[in-house]
Amino acid sequence: MNGKYSLPVVKAVDLIWSSFDKEEIRRGYAMLMQEAQQGGADALCFIARCFMGEEYVWSGAGFATDDANASMLMQKSALMGSATGVLCAVRSGNFTPAVQRGMPFASFKDAFEEILGQAERGNAFCCYMIGNVYYWGDYLLVEPDLAKQFKTENKYNAWAYPIAKEWYERSFKGHICAGWGNYCNIKESGLCVIKNNVYESYFRALAEISPLICNNYGCYIRGKVEPEVVFSYYMKAAQRGDLQAMVNAGSCYDEGYGVGEDTDMAFQYYEIAAIGGHPDAQWQVGYYYFDGWGSIEVDYAKAAQWFEKAYRNPKSGRKNKVRSVAYLGICYRMGLGVVQDDDVALEYLQEAEEDIDMLWHPIDSMVLDALGGENPSTL
Questions:
Q1: How many independent structural domains does the chain possess?
Q2: Euclidean distance between CA atoms 377 and 333, whole angstroms
Q3: 93's torsion region: left (phi>0), alpha (psi -120 to 50) or beta?
Q4: Which domain range does residue 37 map to?
């Protein structure tokens, strides 16, 4: 309840949420730990955010998700009088009745006004949090009577989004990128006018800060500019550790898009992303080993291992699961890199058959032939 962050917290937040540099992030985290040991309630809140997953901190920072520890720290922060802790507790589902009773604020509104004061004085992270309060509807905890004016969520959003937009833009000017996804959603909603030139100006600026946004900007301009420009954004993001950018850069090398075709370079980027846990990259590496591309020799054992990783990866989309399980089924059916097992093969192949339209020739034919079904390529 100090009304402002300590200087070490201000510096630490800047390092963790603006640098996108693993060493600088760790330096910022050490500063937060030191502040927390000295009783800093705000520091506890920001430490908690580090363990709440990629919605709260850059995935490339290397923090392991620990929901239980994060909840404990977040609630403790709010109970110790951190207005940031209160706002983040509401947003993360940690604003329990016990926290509401025990916090030293008379109401959520008091905590909101403390953060609002810091935002108005130019703190970019506070600007982001105020934007969130409006965007997510938490402002109805500030002014409960407003709920009577909005009969639907859409009507609330039509009122709140223009306000959230302004606060997010102020946060962008302070190099805080965390609100970009919500800002994009506001634009796409049609409930708030964001001119294309304004949108693209912020997009370009934030692409120079965040590897994630840098990759997304490359996707955004694809087809609008020269392929070499698109590739340059993928490469900048990949070199700063963005896994999706590595996959995109690998795809460019695969296709010769914006760069000379080079299957070996493509594999290098796919492999780095695969080791980092990207599900599509894991399938790509398996595919390279299964068929043998460029200087990569056929290695069915490695192929099966990577297909298994891609299939089991909780981040795999349905298409990636289907193509991974299809190749796994073939591996087990034919004993390629694994001990031949008809029962396991049948289980995998039947799962692949459920979405056979997602596959292509010849793998769709191989699946159906292995199952003794009708081959779509012969129809």
A1: 4
A2: 21
A3: left
A4: 1-105
- Core vs surface per residue 254-278: b (16+ CB within 10 A) or e: beebbbeeeeebbbebbbbbbeeeb
Encode pLDDT of 171-181 as tens digits. Answer: 999 999 999 99
The tokens describing 140, both together, are 């109805």
Give the max Cα distance, the chain: 74
Q: What single letter denotes the amino acid at residue 252?
A: C
Helix (H) or strand (E) holding 303: helix 300-312
Q: Domain ends where: 276, 305, 323? A: 276
Residue 132 to residue 85: CA distance in whole angstroms: 14
Q: Encode pLDDT of 231-284 as tens digits.
A: 999 999 999 999 999 999 999 999 999 999 999 999 999 999 999 999 999 999
CA distance 55 to 72: 18
Nearest to 233 by CA among 206, 256, 255: 206
Considering the domain architecture, whether residues 100 and 129 belong to the same structural domain is answered as: no
